[in-house]
Design goal:
- By secondary structure, the protein is α+β, with helices and mostly antiparallel strands.
- The protein has two domains: 169 residues, no CATH class; 83 residues, no CATH class.
- The protein has ten helices and 15 strands.
- The strands form six sheets. It has a three-stranded mixed beta sheet. It has a three-stranded antiparallel beta sheet with strand order 9-14-13. Strands 10-11-12 form a three-stranded antiparallel beta sheet.
């Protein structure tokens, strides 16, 4: 049952995108609202709902509950849910700071449920649609986690962090520069061996070369691609966990994160083979691989780790309030 809900949550996030701006991580400048020298989450905020155009006012706890429903299996251990809520809260603070005055939000909105600019959020209506009556079984844990997240802002050097997260790592998490070209001191590789036990840890996906060509042209209309698909995907540089650092298509060099986004791959840890017009991608894990591994967080919680333990494990050198 736990794996089934994990898969449901994973695909929910994939439908809405992943908690990251498509062009990469924003510039880590600006500062969140401070109270006694520490960043605080607002008591209420206005969330833009991209499907309807509505701007809905809600409490911090209501917002974080919706984030949890959209981002993680709701039947995960309470301490794993708390860790995810804290990550969602810190990430939301950074996003609101970056979006303030940017012109990317409708007037009156603080943040959006659109993952092209923000992170996934489910309204109560969407939660009912996705989970049905089963959501009520876990509502108490979700509420407690949301309350924890609001009051436990993860910081590095006094600022909220870009607390990115993913479903399942490739056995270790991935440094941020492999994905977005930006090295953050708290987004380093962390051990997450339990992820290898995930029911669909390794997956195989086939794509026709025409699909890949269309995706590359949609990304860059002026891209030069070799006529022979057998010459695509050369000089692949991957680390020991399989995360692709760089690969070439013709004269064009892409990061693993680029290809993950452009081609809609399941993970940034992948290998690729070509035969008879078909590219076969074998992936490990699910998601970009940086920051918090949700499956790994649940395994740590099952072993007795607290939310703070989990956060300090996956985000190097951060401060988590006690």
């Amino acid at each position: 049952m736990k794996d089934i809900l994990m898969i449901l949550a994973m695909f929910a996030v994939m439908i809405f995108g992943l908690p990251l701006l498509i062009k990469g991580l924003p510039d880590p400048s600006g500062a969140a609202v401070q109270e006694n020298g520490a960043p605080v989450f607002p008591d209420t905020l206005n969330v833009y709902l991209s499907d309807t155009g509505e701007i809905r006012n809600m409490t911090a706890e209501e917002y974080l509950e919706g984030c949890l429903a959209a981002q993680i299996a709701v039947n995960y251990e309470p301490e794993a849910l708390k860790a995810q809520a804290a990550a969602s809260a810190a990430y939301a603070l950074r996003l609101m700071d970056d979006l303030r005055g940017s012109g990317k939000m409708p007037d009156g909105a603080d943040i959006s449920d659109d993952s092209r600019t923000c992170q996934p959020y489910f309204t109560p209506e969407k939660r009912e649609e996705m989970y049905g009556a089963s959501y009520g079984t876990y509502a108490g844990n979700i509420r407690a986690a949301a309350e924890y997240g609001k009051t436990h802002i993860i910081t590095y050097d006094g600022e909220p962090i870009y607390a990115v997260y993913h479903a399942v790592s490739a056995g270790n998490t991935c440094p941020s520069e492999y994905i977005w070209g930006a090295a953050f001191p708290y987004l380093r590789a962390s051990a997450s061996a339990a992820d290898r036990e995930f029911i669909n840890f390794e997956c195989v996906n086939e794509m026709k070369y025409e699909e890949i060509r269309r995706a590359l042209i949609a990304y860059d209309a002026g891209i030069e691609i070799p006529a022979d698909p057998a010459l695509w995907f050369t000089d692949i540089n991957a680390n020991e966990d399989g995360y692709v650092i760089s690969a070439k298509i013709g004269k064009n060099t892409f990061s693993g994160g680029d290809l993950w986004r452009i081609l809609g791959l399941r993970s940034t840890a992948f290998t690729v083979k070509y035969e008879n017009g078909i590219f076969t991608f074998t992936t490990k894990g699910a998601g970009h691989g940086a920051g918090l591994s949700q499956y790994g967080a649940d395994a740590m919680a099952l072993s007795g780790s607290s939310a703070a333990d989990i956060l300090r494990h996956y985000y190097a050198g951060v401060n988590v309030p006690e």
